[in-house]
Design goal:
The complex is a heterodimer of chains A (441) and B (308).
Chain A: H1 2-30, E1 62-68, H2 75-87, E2 92-98, H3 103-115, E3 123-127, H4 131-136, H5 144-150, H6 156-159, E4 163-164, E5 167-168, E6 171-177, E7 179-183, H7 194-203, E8 207-208, H8 215-227, H9 245-259, H10 272-280, E9 286-289, H11 292-297, E10 307-310, E11 324-331, H12 338-348, H13 351-361, E12 364-365, H14 374-379, H15 383-392, H16 402-417, H17 423-438
Parallel strand pairs in A: 1-2, 1-3, 8-9
Antiparallel strand pairs in A: 3-11, 4-5, 6-11, 6-12, 7-9, 7-10
Helix pairs in contact in A: 8-9, 8-16, 16-17
Chain B: H1 2-18, H2 22-52, E1 54-56, E2 64-66, H3 73-80, H4 82-114, H5 120-127, H6 129-132, H7 135-146, H8 153-157, H9 169-195, H10 199-207, H11 212-240, H12 244-249, H13 259-269, H14 273-307
Antiparallel strand pairs in B: 1-2
Classes of the chains: A alpha/beta (441), B mainly alpha (308).
């Protein structure tokens, strides 16, 4: 009997802990989660969003808070320091608020603040895939009047990632596009199209990419699907059109590569790092990866000096494509000093700062002229390839329900790659999952 | 006699008249704890339930409505979705298998550590190492170990399997990794239980001619039962809420999406607060139900055993 009571006490404690953990997760995120209740009439538009005034940055004073992920490469710290030196006399300064290194967590931190209408973050370093969602929630300024004055300097593809509902919601600051890495000792001439890439790979040591079910696979699939002429959403983003002959063709192409052993065994579980290690151990002829793998590859004894990069080739009967990564600078509507925030954004996207980003920190700039800078070209032989890769890259579907769209892609594509379902059925399922996500309230 | 009785009866009355009555005083003294528990435990649960009865718009900032019909729309959707039942199935299989192996292995380890021998202290420390490793690190480690190209498992077993890319292999790896990590914790809890069993009982049994098996069956197991039960409940509740292991190992692919992973994805990644909260509430209810089942089943057994 006594033991029973003991157990009951423990159970109470344990159940309570369970409750706390389950509850906390919710509370953290929900933080006043849109509790406003029905009231607004217009649905799904950005009508009435605040618009930034480009003149407000002239002579702006005060302190700007820049929220971003952990500044692991140190570039933003260096540039913020430079900003503070240059604008001290004007009474303008900036400080950084660093969140976690995890992208999900950064987004969660910003979302929490915006839902609480907190003005803590004046400027936020938004991943290109979040910008539309923030805009649809009216959490960030419509920056069109400012961006239009800079339009000609910026690589056009990067501007697509801040374009939502016909307006510009941020300023692209850093961009990214993946390369095809290849072994120069096995590949004489860079192949002219994807089919050739797989042919050459099949005759040699194969290809490795990111086939695990996560955001990376969405990119890897769309790079080939877009090249084959496929699309994900219709023009105004209201309908899923992923179940198309072009996309089926692209997926079939990838599935065949896994089936006949051209793709590395286990590729369906690989993310960037596994792929990189596999390539660096000398086991693959081709690798699809981001530019970060270049410098690391140069340090890997087995492939050092034996590899090069190329932008993605075209898909037979289609064209060239790629997927745009990177970050945009967005300004919070709850900022009490948007003029100062804009001055900071303007500073970070000037050519001078963008050269520093590339030259000293290997971060791909959004200002086109930087890629032709002599110093940069000398230090990075792949600068021209990168500019080409970025220019041919396309944005991932812009939608407030992007996370669900991406899940519908990577889950089903992964199933097809693993051979558990046919490409046709996988894309049919992706289509219906996407459509119901688009129709959510 | 009568005098003392009245005196005794009179004392509390006098005491009560001097200050706050004892019962009320007791309430006052526990009040801070109750308030604290209400804030940190009760409020989030109530809030989660509140969220689960609503739908929050992804398109229009701040727009929300009751999840029709009658606020239970999210529950209806969840209970009708194959995703929820699949996650429940995966979570239950994982829980039963991992807790089962952990208990058996933990008990064996505890018995080994309990017997006195040279280097006992060292063994106890070494055994705990896997438990000290962060779950995320454990998951990354096992990812590498079972990698068909970079890991050694295929070489060791002479297989050619993509462990995390196939069903049910991915779940097996997940269970294995959890057992590897948590069996030492189980061992530690059970070791504590073993150490409070008086040695005299064993001596007496030995004198009476009980075999080792009989001693284990009739002495160790019944006397260990309270510790074992607490350990089991702890581990079961933990396993039912498993999140980090599948998140890092497979991101839920190949039959490894647990209830918590599904809830987190719905809530945090997709910002479907109502639907996500519904999944957490359902997970919470399952956890509660399993806990009560434990007390009912195993608790009854204990009573039977001790009355023997």
């Amino acid at each position: 009997m006594r033991w029973n009571r003991h157990v009951a006490v423990w159970l109470g404690v344990a159940a309570l802990m369970g409750g706390v953990v389950a509850g906390c997760g919710d509370d953290d995120e929900g933080g006043g989660g849109g509790g406003g209740g029905a009231g607004t009439e217009e649905t799904g538009t950005t009508e009435g969003a605040k618009v930034i005034d480009p003149k407000s940055m002239d002579g702006a004073k005060g302190e700007v808070t820049f929220c971003l992920g952990k500044d692991t490469s140190g570039d933003k710290t260096a540039l913020t320091k430079k900003f503070n030196q240059e604008f001290k006399s004007q009474g303008l300064s900036a400080k950084m608020l660093e969140f976690s290194t995890s992208a999900d967590e950064q987004r969660a931190q910003f979302v929490q603040r915006q839902e609480a209408k907190s003005g803590e973050c004046d400027v936020f370093y938004s991943d290109v895939i979040w910008t539309a969602e923030f805009a649809s929630q009216k959490w960030i300024f419509d920056m069109s009047p400012y961006v239009q004055t800079r339009e000609s300097e910026v690589i056009p593809a990067t501007l697509e990632s801040v374009n939502y509902d016909g307006k510009f919601w941020g300023m692209p600051q850093q961009t990214d596009a993946a390369f095809l890495y290849f072994r120069t000792d096995q590949v004489k001439e860079p192949p002219g199209n994807w089919q050739e890439v797989y042919d050459v790979a099949g005759q040699n040591d194969g290809i490795v990419y990111q086939g695990a079910p996560y955001e990376g696979l969405t990119c890897d699939f769309l790079e080939i699907a877009f090249a084959a002429g496929g699309q994900v959403l219709n023009e105004d983003g209201t309908k899923a059109v992923i179940d198309s002959p072009e996309n089926v063709k692209a997926l079939q192409f990838m599935v065949d590569g896994v089936k006949d052993g051209t793709a590395a065994r286990g590729v369906t579980t690989y993310m960037e790092e596994e792929a990189r290690r596999y390539f660096e151990s000398g086991k693959a002829t081709f690798m699809r990866n981001w530019p970060y793998a270049y410098a690391l590859g140069e340090k890997a004894p087995k492939v050092k000096g034996k590899f090069d990069v190329m932008p993605f080739p075209e898909f037979e009967g289609g064209g060239k494509a790629g997927i745009l990564g990177g970050h945009n600078l967005v300004i919070s509507v709850y900022s009490d000093n948007p003029g100062a925030a804009l001055a900071y954004v303007d500073f970070l996207t000037q050519e001078e700062q963008q050269i520093i980003e590339f030259r000293d920190f290997t971060l791909a700039p959004t200002v086109a002229s930087v890629y032709d800078n002599k110093e940069v070209k000398k230090k990075y032989p792949f600068a021209t390839d990168l500019k080409e890769a970025v220019s041919q890259a396309k944005v991932r579907p812009v939608s407030p329900v992007y996370p669900q769209i991406s899940q519908a892609i990577y889950k089903n594509v992964n199933e097809a790659l693993a051979g558990r379902t046919s490409p046709e059925d996988a894309l049919k399922k992706a289509q219906s999952e996407m459509q119901s996500a688009l129709e959510t309230f | 006699m009568a005098e003392t009785a009245t005196l005794r009866a009179g004392t509390p009355t006098r005491r009560r008249s001097r200050g706050i009555p004892e019962r009320r005083l007791a309430w006052l003294m526990v009040a801070p704890s109750i308030v604290l528990i209400a804030i940190v435990a009760l409020w989030p649960i109530i809030y989660a339930i509140w969220l689960s009865l609503h739908e929050y718009s992804l398109r229009q900032a701040g727009l929300s409505r009751w999840a029709s019909p009658a606020g239970f729309g999210n529950y209806q959707d969840a209970l009708q979705s194959s995703e929820f039942w699949e996650a429940t199935r995966v979570t239950l299989i994982f829980t039963v298998a991992s807790v089962g192996f952990e208990t058996a292995l933990g008990l064996a380890m505890a018995m080994a550590m309990h017997s006195a021998f040279k280097g006992q202290g060292l063994l106890r420390t070494v055994v705990l190492v896997p438990w000290a490793v962060l779950t995320v690190v454990t998951a990354i480690m096992w990812r590498t170990i079972v990698d068909p190209n970079l890991g050694f498992v295929n070489t060791l077993l002479g297989t050619n399997t993509v462990w995390l890319g196939e069903e049910p292999h991915a779940l097996i790896v997940m269970i294995f990794a959890d057992v590897w990590k948590t069996a030492p914790f189980m061992a530690l809890l059970l070791l504590a239980g073993l150490q409070v069993i008086p040695n005299e009982i064993y001596e007496a049994a030995r004198v009476d001619g009980a075999t080792a098996w009989q001693r284990f069956r009739k002495i160790t197991l019944p006397l260990l039962m309270p510790a074992l039960l607490v350990a089991l409940i702890f581990r079961t509740l933990d396993a039912l809420r498993i999140f980090d292991l599948p998140k890092v190992l497979t991101n839920g692919a190949n039959g490894t999406t647990s209830l918590s992973l599904l809830a987190q994805r719905t809530f945090q990644e997709n910002r479907l607060y109502g639907e996500g909260a519904t999944l957490s509430v359902l997970t919470f209810l399952i956890v509660m139900a399993v806990s009560f089942a434990y007390i009912r089943l195993v608790g009854g057994n204990i009573r039977g055993m001790t009355e023997d």
